[in-house]
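wait is this the right file?? whatever heres the structure
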């Protein structure tokens, strides 16, 4: 079986087992009739609702957030999905949409993400930043399942694959992978006990629920290509969507991103 085919099959099996939705609407204010739809990468589902709340307080306007994998959103937008702003976990998808004439311009870099190894309580695999015990667990049979987002369309899944390749573990661990359709679902797999560990975003590892579920060790940034996250206004967007896009780049919003573990443009990375 070719690697991409096997990845795809395990992703489908993982979805059936988890019963989780691909995209989750996280912000539905009571007066949502005029709230523009915003597509956002799943690593933002603990961060962006807070930004949206600050935006509402500052402007009196609301947005409707939908979370999922950046690659899936890019395909939906190409096919005419009526989103007004796209916050991607991979700037390459924004550039692809810009080249296809779907965006107002080339967008703006809003954050750079980080990944790490998560170990749920009782798994028997220790979380360390160099994946030393993970390698030992693969060899001695302690590791039976390992969660990452699907690298075919989830940027954090691609970064996880690159980190595992850097550590020389990809070929050994690939048969044990449980793939999330997006990184939020991969985090669910890793924290629920469905797997003995996983590679997840720092932004989700910092949430109280994930902190309580196990241990996390950040992986060196040079073990994978930078997770340069870019936002863009899509063609046909209204005034509220444009205002939200600008607010994402404001000092208030940058403070929220920083607190959730992101590196900010102009501050390194």
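ok assuming it is, sequence goes like this
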């Amino acid at each position: 079986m070719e690697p991409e085919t096997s990845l795809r099959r395990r992703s489908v099996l993982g979805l059936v087992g988890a019963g989780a939705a691909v995209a989750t609407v996280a912000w539905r204010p009571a007066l949502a009739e005029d709230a523009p739809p915003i597509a956002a990468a799943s690593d933002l589902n603990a961060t962006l609702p807070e930004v949206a709340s600050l935006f509402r307080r500052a402007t009196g306007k609301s947005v409707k957030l939908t979370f999922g994998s950046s690659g899936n959103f890019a395909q939906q937008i190409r096919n005419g999905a009526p989103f007004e702003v796209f916050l991607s976990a991979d700037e390459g998808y924004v550039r692809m949409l810009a080249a296809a004439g779907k965006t107002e311009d080339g967008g703006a870099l809003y954050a750079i993400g980080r990944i790490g190894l998560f170990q749920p309580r009782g798994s028997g695999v220790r979380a360390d930043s160099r994946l030393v015990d993970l390698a030992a667990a693969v060899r001695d049979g302690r590791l039976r399942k390992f969660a990452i987002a699907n690298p075919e369309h989830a940027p954090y899944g691609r970064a996880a694959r690159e980190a595992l390749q850097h550590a020389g573990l990809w070929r050994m661990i690939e048969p044990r992978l449980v793939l999330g359709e997006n990184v939020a679902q991969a985090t669910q797999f890793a924290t629920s006990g469905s797997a003995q560990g996983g590679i997840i975003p720092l932004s989700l590892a910092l949430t109280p629920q994930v902190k309580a579920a196990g241990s996390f060790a950040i992986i060196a940034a040079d073990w994978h290509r930078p997770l340069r996250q870019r936002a863009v206004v899509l063609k046909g967007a209204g005034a509220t969507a444009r205002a939200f896009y600008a607010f994402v780049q404001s000092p208030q919003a940058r403070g929220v991103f920083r607190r959730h573990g992101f590196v900010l443009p102009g501050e390194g990375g």
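Residues 3-18 form the longest helix (16 residues). so i think its the right one actually
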